[in-house]
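Fold this: Stage 0 sporulation protein A homolog
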Amino acid sequence: MIMKVLIVDDLLNNRILLKSLLKGIEDVEIELADSAAEAFRLMGIVDDHINTEEPLESIDLILMDIMMPEMNGVEACQLLKELPATRHIPIIMVTAKAEMQDLESAFNAGAVDYITKPLRRMELMARVRAALNSKREADKLRRVQAQLRRQIHQLEQDRQASPAIAGGEGASVSSVASGNAMTTQDMNEILLRLLRFGFCTGIEDTSRFAEMIRAEWKIAAKNKALMASVLVEIDNFDEYEQQGGEGAQALVDSLGRIMLEVITGEGESLYPGGPGRMAMILAVTATDDALKKAQMIQKHWRAACEEGTLPETSFTISIGVATVEPTERNLPADLLEICEKALQRAKEEGGDRIKRN
């Protein structure tokens, strides 16, 4: 996944030097700004305001010079940390002199780190890599939390509509989700419980799934993105379950954990796809993006089988992948139908493989 770094410095030579020093970091794009005002413009901030409270996805890290005319780096950092859309972006201060007072002001304003001039390439790259890794994990946690909130909200609606559900697993999930100190693993486990609850109660019906994908479809159409589906089925799961296989649910949980691990971007969601199945819906920018997700899922599943971490290690998975461009002439159902056909081809050819449209 490409991550974007914004370099903010009023001196052209400094900007060029920083950019050249960061060339060794893979999957990083560099943006340049000659002032805090120019940086704000690049991020869509006008008059100290941005027209959204959603986390800004265009910038992943800012390298900010402390000493700049008009608005210095500390003031710019403080403003960015006050705006909901930009407060999650880590900021590393770049300074010619590590004055204790300046550093204290920078950290109080929300900076996560600093580096002194003259710049040392190895130190710079290490600090930037660390900041980007932290940002990547924070983004992943935020996405899982967002999906968790959506799932819990829908579950609460179902509980209110159907007294038969009340007092079930959903109640404990809601109480756990209200906690504050939750890790990505915690969130993933709760999501798995919600998905499992769906299998037990039937709330994963087609109308619910269609409602969820329609919402993602509208967003993709608005952003002129492609929409993709990855449908994964555990081979021979039906026979195993009918024979009373004790590890059936544990197998599905394992598949869910693996698929949650490969969710890395906005617009990526995981839903129950039926017995022994999981479906991933995602907005993508290239036709191969969904295929790469499928390959990662298959790779992780095979590794888990080899390592013996699955409850049953003899099972393989078949995967169908489909990608379409949302338009007025097609519907979410078309995507799901194409993906289902791709999955069926994978199964007909013996399973343990990936097929795409």
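The beta strands are 3-8, 28-33, 61-65, 91-95, 113-116, 226-234, 268-272, 277-284, 317-324, 354-356. The radius of gyration is 23 Å.
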